Amino acid sequence: MPDETVETLVVNHRAFLAFVERRVGNRAIAEEILQDAFVRSLDKLGDVNETAVGWFYRVLRNAIIDHHRRTSAAARRDDAYARELDTDEELQREACKCVAQLADTLKPEYATALRRIEVDGVSVKSYADEAGISASNAGVRIFRAREALRKQVARVCGTCATHGCVDCTCAENGNGSRSCRLPGGE
Question: For FRET with 115, which of 40, 60, 106, 172 sits at 20 to 30 Å CA-CA?
Fold first, then answer.
């Protein structure tokens, strides 16, 4: 009986493939689902108490449902990951705006050095040529500018500078510091 059943299934291969392809919309995926269903069904062929073709269509329907469930779950994971990346990029933009505003409070030559090197991506040598100073002087200037910005962030943002600011719409307190929303509601 199993040999006859296998032969019946093989004869109907094209019909099975067309059935699956109509439901998944992709021939390569349909072939993969069909092949997987054939392989998983070989052990159960001896237990078939009905027509092999009808039984195998049921097997294929279940395989198609499983495929759609897997692809839906993967799509949901991908969407969640994309939303998480968007949130991270939004947070980065907000933090950058906050830091850019603080950079503008530094000495003009420090603010310009930070903007050209860190934001615009100009090399230290190119910045030195623009500013009419030596490359080593430009290196010292950007080092001092970074240090001055770090101190300014620590002074203005307080604990956010240590713990990481989550909400750069922080409110300025009367004493010149800011109160920000920290990760975990701290």
Answer: 172
